[in-house]
Specification:
alpha+beta; 8-stranded parallel barrel; 32% strand; binds alpha-D-galactopyranose
Length: 698
């Protein structure tokens, strides 16, 4: 009998990881997929099951948890590094296995005595979410500096049956746009070198098979918890599987590890689900929820906000803003956010960033009178800041021109008339912490909207070396510092809308501004992309003006509200000007949001396409589902397609009611099996209309 190797097995509720351990090498990837029974094992070692093909190394090198270049592995390496041109090839000579939590979390210490490096790979499988968190830490145990070009945060196997990668691309005002690419005998790769997560390439994807649907079949998903440069590759392997790597994209020379120094990768969150794309989303939502830290220890119901930006832009007048707060309070708004335009000389976007004190012309007595007025109405007061930025036309820049990221001798390239502060430079974080801290100390601020309105260029630090990584880490440190000093303050992450949305920043923040585009039709696609990775309660979603400022298209108040409703609902328009029927409608939708938010948030989200211009979104599980049916285009049929809801319990009977701000209809009793197989009939809807249903198990 062939000896059975040692297998390292981690079980989630619905997925399993199996590695094959051997003392003198990195463990081999044997399985990541749907839950196997306890004790299930691959049997013989992998090499014993696959004879050496012709023109191959006599010692087969399959995919390991950390494959390395130059000593028998021909696929993408998890590490690209050298020491003065030498030690370019690595292979581990020893592996120590430590169970951090038996059957759940594992630390693998991989040592290469020849190239003088150590890599610690950590794997942790959360049984509540079925998300596997992977990370790696590289230590230079040799004498000279180790130049690192690539360190994978994680390496994951994908089965040969995978055919499609669904990634998300976009630009400012149009984020999270689905792009489906065929996997094949090539490498699929996405890179981002913009210095922040970017609107352009989300650091994550979902991998599907022909049998994968919105709510059924096997699908895999991964995302990187990192707010800087990133890269991911899915590469075909000799055995038909694929390997998926994700990590930080490093600029040339960015990481030179001195002797004894360690480089820590970000975390890669990996999951799979047999409940299709929605199952992957549900797993990610669970993982993100458990990573977030809330003032008071738990999320409170997400308050309805009003943001001043699109209603007022830079035109701040105290009386108008007070009247806006009055009007918002009357509508039922619970949080008032004073956006850009409030600080020293900030008349437009050409100046002021960096000078974080109130403008004396607009606010002769500071922000306290406005904040007192807002809180006096029972609303929370929130404030917009953009700490990492500086306008050349600012007191701060005039005093400290060297504080902006720059390369000596090269022009300082502005974007939106601004430069980026080098947060890692001495004095910069202290200055920002003092200035933002003073605002938080002196005013009753419950909420900060923290913006970042440009990509990074000429991003060298004081030493002239690439500073992208340092900048990202210093930003996290600044968030953490302010959170520690003001633990009751919630923070919204924004970067021209969705330019910095990732699981790394969500360690420090509580909501994101999903997109600067509030046009409700555009928002449907943006929000659906977002919801593949992140839960609805942190998705900033506003009712904007009609016509929408970003597209000049106009939609009804009810449709605008219906699209914003499933997220963290808010209003972004001059509420004083909303009168008559529109005002009554908005007020009614705000009340509806308040009555539904506990059901919509914290729940699973299922997304589907019914065809004929209808998409749907359901929040909940088999016991209680809130279903939004959006018609986006004119129908081409006399009768609309029905919506099959596979998530329902076929053995149950459901009370199905259509709800709107004026209440629910009498409803009908329908069988779960019928609703899952044949579907819910959809009422006639015009383009840009929504119908909402509640399905409750009887
Ligand atoms: C960015 C944000 C907007 C607004 C402006 C203010 O574009 O995404 O919501 O805060 O900045 O300048």
């Amino acid at each position: 009998m062939i000896a059975t190797p040692t297998f390292l097995t981690l079980h989630g509720a619905r997925c399993t990881v199996i590695l094959e351990a051997a003392p003198g090498e990195a463990p081999l990837w044997r399985y990541f997929g749907p839950r196997l029974p306890d004790g299930a094992s691959p049997g013989p070692g992998l090499r014993d099951t696959r004879p050496t093909p012709s023109f191959s190394l006599d010692f087969d090198q399959p995919l390991s948890i950390f494959p390395t270049f130059g000593v028998g592995w021909f696929g993408q390496s998890a590490l690209l590094a050298h020491r003065g041109g030498r030690d370019f090839a690595q292979a581990f000579t020893h592996c120590a296995v430590d169970w951090l939590k038996p059957g759940r979390a594992l630390s693998l210490t991989l040592t290469d005595a020849i190239a003088a490096i150590r890599v610690v790979v950590e794997l942790s499988l959360d049984p509540a979410s079925d998300v596997l968190t992977l990370s790696s830490a590289l230590t230079n145990t040799g004498e000279g500096a180790l130049d690192v070009q690539w360190l994978a945060a994680g390496v994951a196997p994908l089965p040969a049956s995978c055919t499609t990668v669904r990634s998300y691309v976009g630009r400012h005002n149009h984020e999270f746009i689905l792009e489906a690419d065929a996997l094949g005998r090539h490498a699929w790769r996405r890179e981002n070198r913009r210095g922040l997560t970017s609107h352009d390439a989300f650091p994550g994807a979902v991998v599907a098979m022909p049998s994968t649907t919105e709510d059924g079949g096997l699908a895999y998903g991964a995302q990187l918890a990192w707010s800087g440069n990133h890269a991911q590759t899915i590469e075909w392997l000799d055995d038909g599987r694929f390997q998926w790597q994700m990590g930080e994209w490093l600029a040339p020379g960015e990481v030179r590890l001195g002797p004894g120094k360690t480089l820590n990768s970000p975390q890669m969150l990996l999951t799979c689900s047999e409940r299709g794309l929605g199952g992957v989303a549900a797993n990610f939502h669970g993982a993100i929820r458990s990573r977030m830290t809330w003032p008071g220890g738990a999320m409170r119901p997400r308050p309805v906000g009003i943001n001043t930006w699109e209603g007022f832009y830079f035109d701040h007048r105290l009386d108008d803003l007070k009247a806006l707060a009055d009007s918002a309070a009357e509508l039922g708004v619970e949080r008032f956010v004073l956006d850009d335009g409030w600080f020293h000389r900030r008349a437009d976007d050409t100046r002021g960033l960096g000078d974080w004190w109130p403008d004396v012309d607009k606010y002769p007595d500071g922000l306290a009178p406005l904040a007192a007025h807002v809180t006096g109405l029972g609303l929370e007061f929130g404030l917009w800041v953009e700490p990492e930025m500086v306008n050349p036309d600012s007191d701060l820049y005039r005093a400290h021109p060297d504080w902006a990221l720059h390369i000596e001798g090269r022009p300082r390239l502005t974007a939106r008339n601004q430069l980026v502060l080098d947060l890692a430079r001495e004095g910069v974080a202290d200055y920002l912490s003092d200035k933002i801290g003073a605002l938080l100390r002196d005013l009753p601020i419950g909420y900060l909207k923290w913006d970042h309105n440009r990509d990074l260029t000429t991003a060298a630090g004081a030493d002239g070396q690439a500073a992208y990584r340092r900048q990202t880490l210093a930003a996290y440190a600044l968030f953490a510092r302010l959170r520690a000093a003001f633990p009751d303050v919630e923070i919204e992450a924004c970067a021209g809308g969705g330019g910095r949305i990732d699981a790394g920043l969500l360690r420090h923040t509580h909501r994101v501004w999903t997109s600067d585009c509030i046009d409700a039709v555009s928002r449907v696609a943006i929000q659906r992309g977002f919801l593949q990775f992140f839960p609805p309660e942190i998705m900033g979603a506003h009712v904007g003006a009609a016509p929408a400022h970003s597209t000049s298209r106009a939609q009804s108040m009810a449709f605008r509200a219906a699209v914003a409703l499933p997220g963290h609902f808010g209003v972004e328009l001059d509420a004083r000007k909303i009168e008559g029927a529109d005002r009554a409608t908005l007020k009614a939708w705000i009340a509806l949001y308040k009555s539904l938010r506990d059901r919509l948030h914290g729940a699973c989200v299922w997304l589907g396409e019914a065809g004929d211009g209808v998409v749907w979104q359901a929040h909940g599980e088999a016991d209680d589902l809130v279903l939004f049916v959006y018609r986006l285009e004119m129908t081409g049929r006399r009768f609309a397609p029905a919506i099959a809801l596979a998530v329902l319990d076929p053995a149950a009977v459901y009370a199905v009611r259509r709800i709107d701000p004026h209440g629910a209809d009498a409803g009908a009793a329908m069988s779960g099996a019928w609703l899952a197989a044949s579907g819910l009939p959809v009422p006639p809807l015009k383009p840009e209309q929504c119908a909402i249903f509640r399905l409750v198990r009887q």
